[in-house]
Amino acid sequence: MNDLETLRFELADNVARITLDRPDAANAMNLQMTKDLLEVGIECDENPEVRAVLLRSEGRMFCAGGDLASFAKAGAGLPRGLKEMTVYIHAAITRLTRGRAPAVAAVQGPAAGAGFSLACAADLVVASEQAVFTMAYTRAGLTPDGSSTYFLPRLLGRHRALELILTNRTLSAAEAQDWGIVNEVVPADELDARAGKLAKQLAAGPTWAFGAAKELVMRSFSEDLESQMEFESQAIANAARTEDAAEGIAAFFEKRRADFRGR
Fold first, then answer.
1. How far apart (Å, rounded) are the C-alpha atoms in residues 134 and 115?
2. Which residues are registered as beta bridge partners of 184?
3. Which residues pair with 106 in a beta bridge?
4. Distance between CA atoms of 202 and 121, rounded to whole angstroms?
5. Apex 182 CA angle, 176 and 185, nearest 5
6. What does the alpha-carbon distance between residue 30 and residue 89 come to, in Å, rounded to a whole number?
7. Mean of the per-residue pLDDT values of the chain
8. What b-and-e string marks burial along 184-197, b requiring 16 or more CB atoms within 10 Å of the CB?
9. Predicted structure pTM score
10. Residue 90 appears among annotated catalytic residues
11. Is the CB of residue 138 less than 8 Å from the CB of residue 164?
12. pLDDT of 109-162, one tens digit each?
């Protein structure tokens, strides 16, 4: 994937590392970045070698949100441009959240606007002590996108989600962990190692089961109890057909670590 302009993509040890790479522009999202994110999202979804995704960024900021400089330059064409951008970024987020590979976000600094949304869409979030989180959209007279109005109410409830959206309150990394947005906070110099270790751990797991479990959790917000339990029944039966399930059960009785292959 050598044609990416705003990102770096590396695949090693079954971990796809996606790095936002516009540090001089605070990793703000322009049209090209949304296109690049969709490109790597499809790659992660389609490449069977990808068994975990690590989303990170270069520079001081994780992502400043939308590129307001390009928004201003668009002038009267901005509404049309935003419709095009959201087509790409929303499709990219769908690929990552619906894909079987667990996605880990490593947030080293400020995550604002679409950067906050991107972190919310990850399956697990590790943040440095220097990270902060703010919605920022309404500060510019805009409304949230990038899945945040789906995930934030589910993570926080209606009142806290609206507090972040309407007041643009900034959460420290510790507050974000307390609110349930972040799974773990680590010192800045330990972030890459910790997030990388977590991604490698997930990449060595039962990938099919991980993907099915992700889908079950996503379904749970819109299904009634009996429907959800039926989906659980179907999923665990299908998981039992996989090579990883056979290996996991055998490893339990043989008192050894399972060697999952993602099949």
1. 9
2. 126
3. 126
4. 17
5. 90
6. 10
7. 95
8. ebbeeeebbebbbe
9. 0.92
10. yes
11. no
12. 999 999 999 999 999 999 999 999 999 999 999 999 999 999 999 999 999 999
How much of the chain is helix, strand and coil, in % rounded to 5? Answer: 55, 15, 30
- Active site residue: 21, 36, 67, 145, which one? 145
In DSSP notation, 193-240 reads HHHHHHHHHHHTS-HHHHHHHHHHHHHTTTS-HHHHHHHHHHHHHHHT
Q: How far apart are CA 58 and CA 32, in angstroms?
A: 17
Kind of pairing, strands 124-128 and 103-107? parallel
Q: Which amino acid is at 206?
A: P
Residue percentage of the chain with pLDDT more than 90:
97
Closest CA to 134 of 30, 190, 54, 62: 62
The single residue of 13, 90, 178, 244 carrying the catalytic annotation is 90
Express each pLDDT in 63-101 by its tens digit: 999 999 999 999 999 999 999 999 999 999 999 999 999
Token pair 């299908």: residue: 238
